Amino acid sequence: MVIIAILLSLVNLSIGDGNLSRKMEQETQRLASLLDLASQEAIFQSKQMGIFFEEKGYHFYRLQDQQWQIITESDSIFRQRRLPDGIQIHFQLEGQAVSLYDNTEKLLPHLFIFSSGEFIPFKIVFNSEANDNFYYQLTGNMMGKMVIKQIEDEFETF
Q1: Burial class (CB in 10 A: 0-12, 13-18, 19+), 6
Q2: Which of 2, 22, 27, 60 is the most buried (most CB within 10 A)?
Q3: Which residues touch 86 (CB under 8 Å, ≥6 apart)?
């Protein structure tokens, strides 16, 4: 009976985590798609765009009249995004960790998307607050090419 109880609890834990894993994958794919759309928008509009990350979400900016302006809720595509409970973001720019707490005034985006569609090389990690052994990583290079990886290894904060 004890063995059956232990097995059932392990199955239950893996099913619960599977849902969070699926949500992390969806959020990673959503961000990659939004960054791709923002890159195309920057090219077509000949305007620079940017994205500001918080531990629990992100939102987009557009450069208008030499000032960064947050894209408001009226834009259904580039509106502010909140992550599901239990998921957090970590961000690296050109190999350097970026603290998501330093830019609390939200004056400048962390990641710039140039009017040429190019990015500064970046790495974004979506991980579970409860399980550091599984996470999704989105990397992008200067040419705008992005790669998503599922990683099963202990995540160490940048």
Answers
A1: exposed
A2: 60
A3: 20, 23, 128, 129, 130
- Which two structure tokens, joined as six digits, stand for 78? 């580039």
pLDDT confidence tier of residue 15, bands split at 50, 70 and 90: very low
C-alpha R_g of the chain? 18
Catalogue all structural domains in the chain, each as residue range(s) with its CATH number: 2-151 (3.55.40.10)
Q: How many CB atoms lie within 10 A of CB 13?
A: 11
Give, for 25, the enclosing helix (H) or strand (E). helix 2-45
Confidence (pLDDT) at 39: 94
Contact of 123 with 91, CB cutoff 8 Å: yes
Number of neighbours of residue 148 by Cβ within 10 angstroms:
15
Separation CA 120–CA 35 (nearest Å): 12
Residue 122 CA, chain-centre distance (Å), reads 11
Per-residue model confidence as pLDDT tens digits over 92-105? 999 898 887 665 55
The rounded Cα 77 to chain-centroid distance in angstroms is: 15
78-90: per-residue pLDDT in tens?
999 999 999 999 9
The pTM of the full predicted model, rounded to 2 decimals, is: 0.83
